[in-house]
Amino acid sequence: MTTPITIIGAGLGGLTLARVLHVHGIPVTVYEAEPSPTARSQGGMLDIHDYNGQLALKAAGLMDEFRGLILEGRQAMRVLDRDGTVLFDKADDGTGGRPEVHRGELRQILLDSLPVGTVRWGHKVSSTRALGEGRQKVTFADGSTVVTSLLVGADGAWSRVRPLLSDATPEYVGRSFVETWLFDSDTRHPAAAKAVGGGSLLALAPGKGIQAHRESGGTLHTYVALSKPQDWFAAIDFTDPAAATARIAQEFDGWAPELTELITDSDTAPVLRLLNSLPIGHRWDRVPGVALVGDAAHLSAPNGEGANLAMYDGAELGKALAAHPDDIEAALTEYEQAMFPRSTEAATEGAELHGLMFGGNAPHSLIAAFTGHEQAQ
Ligand SMILES: Cc1cc2nc3c(=O)[nH]c(=O)nc-3n(C[C@H](O)[C@H](O)[C@H](O)COP(=O)(O)OP(=O)(O)OC[C@H]3O[C@@H](n4cnc5c(N)ncnc54)[C@H](O)[C@@H]3O)c2cc1C
After folding, report:
1. Can you identify the CATH homologous superfamily of domain 2-72+100-169+279-358?
2. Which parts of the sequence belong to the FAD-binding domain (predicted)?
3. How far is the CA of 307 from the centre of ligand 1 (A)?
């Protein structure tokens, strides 16, 4: 079977590209490994920035739908010391450019905006092969194949499309997150709820931190960050939630109880999220008929930009293809020439942010950066 534009991956990057192409009347097919839109929980909230994610949603014609998803007040942010002292506190005055939405709801408005059948669920790509003259063959896990004249890898960190362009593979960044959730916190965990406040909380120290967010209602979603090697995490039995929780909490001995409650009182088993990244500045020579968007192109340790950049990449590639309907290579060149420096800059800033958050002078290094930034405005 031959399809015109083929996207692998129905994450935010691939779906934004599909939607922008659809807005411009360009047919597209998205192949997604997961069996259905609801097969996997889509995780927590994302702040969608006015300088990238929101521009992508404008290009997708979905700003009204997006505004309907925004959780008011969630842009408040505070930084605490390990003893619970509030060192920095910024209220949400409604003027911030980073409103928060649920990732799953954002993905759903993109899915709803595409013609039925655009996304082919349950299609896990096992390999890709160049056939020459810009044509690519995609093989799925069930043995079926498609041949396409434009293949876009929007298939995330472990992309099966990326090998057509680059030998790079993600590497462990030296830090991981352990994810916990507390539900109905205002009644069941009032001290933790009060510490987190209306938006997000960062409690930081060199090499470790507790990052929590108030989601809908009283749900508190926490990423416990630890700068430890992979072996250290491998020695923890995450199939034994109580033991794993105790081992992680031990790293925060002596911290204020309203902070450690975010670990010890989790209503869900702790989930380990090993953090990987591609090399900063990852790029490749142009190969006819293949492109990458989002994490497939520039996976970074989470710094609040990844989903925004994936959507922005998708929108920019969609617009470039619409502007060059008879010249795919011109569109891909234009897209990549802007995407490479954009993602390099974001990854560099993200690495600097991690240094401020988890380096030897945390949390004061981060606060100095925040207050310096505010004074400059
Ligand atoms: C713990 C954590 C917290 C984060 N927090 C934030 C945040 O607050 N803000 C932010 O902007 N970013 C955040 N990020 C980063 C963000 O999640 C990613 O950058 C973003 O999801 C990338 O989007 P994508 O569309 O490129 O890839 P993905 O979201 O990974 O989507 C890829 C899709 O491709 C599918 N797929 C994968 N392999 C195949 C295959 N072989 N065949 C077919 N389909 C396949 C997957 O099932 C998936 O649906 C966070 C990341 C992590 C790990």
Report:
1. FAD/NAD(P)-binding domain (3.50.50.60)
2. 3-337
3. 7
